[in-house]
User: Which sequence fits this backbone?
């Protein structure tokens, strides 16, 4: 499948989801900041926004397929191989429950040295510290307070987003994590490019 077709599908997902393409930066999370990663591709930001819609609304096998196609179509980072040292944040647009998926990674000598992930509600609350939510989610076999630190630990150990495995009951959370980390890695590559100019 060629990249134009992939992004056409993702674009349709955005249009039919009722998401406004003209939302402000606060709604789009990190997406306005990454437009400069591929300035000649008008659909790059829309493709990422569409991927978020797919992530929130489609079966996991479709999410996995489209995620990989997006990574490969644009040669997006899955590790720190082309990254500048520093601290970078990646955050998604808000999902249908008004949560952003937010990661902060610190890179030193082309290694991730620190990672912090959480899902933050528009009202400022977060899933890790929400005791009631964690108790409810434990019925599925895990909770954000367990799954998120495990994903962070694996990323620090394995250094590649696709080597991080889901905790049972947290498969969609894994893809939200990968989405946010990809955005942070894009910013780290953009910083490396600025440093080399």
Assistant:
């Amino acid at each position: 499948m060629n990249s134009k077709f992939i992004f056409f599908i993702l674009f349709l997902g955005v249009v039919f989801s009722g998401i406004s393409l003209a939302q402000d930066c606060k709604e789009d999370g990190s997406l306005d900041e990454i437009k400069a990663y591929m300035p000649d591709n008008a659909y790059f930001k829309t493709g990422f926004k569409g991927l978020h819609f797919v992530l929130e609304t489609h079966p996991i096998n479709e999410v996995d397929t489209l995620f990989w196609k997006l990574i490969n179509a644009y040669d997006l980072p899955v590790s720190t191989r082309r990254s500048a040292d520093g601290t970078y944040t990646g955050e998604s647009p808000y999902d249908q429950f008004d949560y952003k998926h937010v990661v902060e990674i610190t890179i030193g000598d082309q290694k991730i040295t620190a990672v912090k992930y959480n899902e933050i509600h528009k009202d400022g609350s977060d899933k890790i510290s929400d005791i009631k939510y964690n108790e409810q989610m434990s019925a599925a076999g895990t909770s954000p307070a367990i799954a998120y630190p495990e994903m962070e630990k694996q990323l620090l150990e394995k250094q590649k987003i696709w080597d991080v495995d889901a905790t049972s009951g947290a498969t969609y959370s894994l893809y939200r994590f990968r989405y946010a980390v990809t955005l942070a890695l894009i910013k780290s590559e953009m910083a490396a490019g600025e440093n080399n100019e």
